[in-house]
Amino acid sequence: MNEENFFFLFIDIVQSRWDDIFVALQEHLFLSFISIFIAIVISVPLGIFISRRKKLAEPFIAVTAIFQTVPSLALFGFLIPFLGIGNVTAIIALTVYALLPILRNTYTGITSVDQSSIEAGRGMGMTDLQILMKIEVPLSLPVIMAGVRTATVLTIGVATLATFVGAGGLGDIIYRGLTSNKDELVLAGALPATILALGFDLILKLLENAATPKGVKAKK
């Protein structure tokens, strides 16, 4: 098969299966962003907590790092006997994979805030909560956003494996292409997943830059 024929086959498969691809894209976005949202809700407060109790930082970060060393399919398979198949299993597995970058960056960002800024806040009579919300979080936000960006790209990629636990997504299209030996169908599933990952990487990079305080930008 030459490149021109493959291109026309790809266009034809996209046109004929557009409804299936669009549904799979919606499922993929749902799984990815629910997982990222849960990971943020867990990791950001936990990162702030361990920044206050630094002896706990290494154990918590190590545990989340261990989860990331487990192969994706193995983690999905491990959860099936306990949770069955479906969205819940996929979301829990994806959330586990998204925890480390956000937790590590939250801890790093908070602990890297210049102590002179914190002392200046205390000198102005700020409470610990006010220092956290008005000084530490704003100054560490670019680092936290970098963790969210990494986690988002990772999650969008791993979400293609959600098909193996019956949760759908673009992995369905890829799997159908593999089982039917149709490379153009594989590409019809893989290309949108790649575009999603690259697109959200760019969007979150722009948000990361926007969250960087002007003074920090000037130092750079």
Percentage of β-strand residues? under 5%
Rg calc = 21 Å
Tell me about the largest β-sheet. none
* CATH level-1 class: Mainly Alpha
SSE string: HHHHHHHHHH
Number of domains as seen in the coordinates: 1
The end-to-end span amounts to 51 Å
* Tally of helical segments: 10
Mean pLDDT: 92
CATH topology: MetI-like fold
What's the name of the CATH homologous superfamily? MetI-like
> SS-based structural class?
mainly alpha
Instruction: Name the overall outline.
Output: elongated
| Number of separate strands | 0
User: Considering DSSP H and I runs of 4 or more, what fraction of the residues is helical?
Assistant: over 70%
GO biological process, one term: transmembrane transport
InterPro entries: ABC_transp_perm/SBD, MetI-like, MetI-like_sf
Subcellular location: Cell membrane; Membrane
Domain ABC transmembrane type-1: 25-204
Quickly describe the structure.
It is elongated and about 70 Å long. It is built from 10 helices and no strands.
Features:
220 residues, mainly alpha, MetI-like fold, 10 helices, 84% helix, transmembrane helix, transmembrane, ABC transporter permease, transport, ABC_transp_perm/SBD
Describe, in plain words, how this protein is organized in 3D.
The chain is an all-alpha fold and 220 residues long. The protein has one domain (22-212): MetI-like fold (Orthogonal Bundle), CATH 1.10.3720.10. 84% of the residues lie in helices and 0% in strands. It has 10 helices and no strands. The protein has helices at residues 3-16, 18-52, 57-69, 72-83, 87-111, 115-123, 128-158, 170-179, 183-211, 214-219. Helix 4 crosses helix 5 and helix 7 (128-158) runs antiparallel to helix 9 (183-211). The mean pLDDT is 92. This is ABC transporter permease. Belongs to the binding-protein-dependent transport system permease family. Pfam families: BPD_transp_1. It is a multi-pass membrane protein. It is found in: Cell membrane; Membrane.
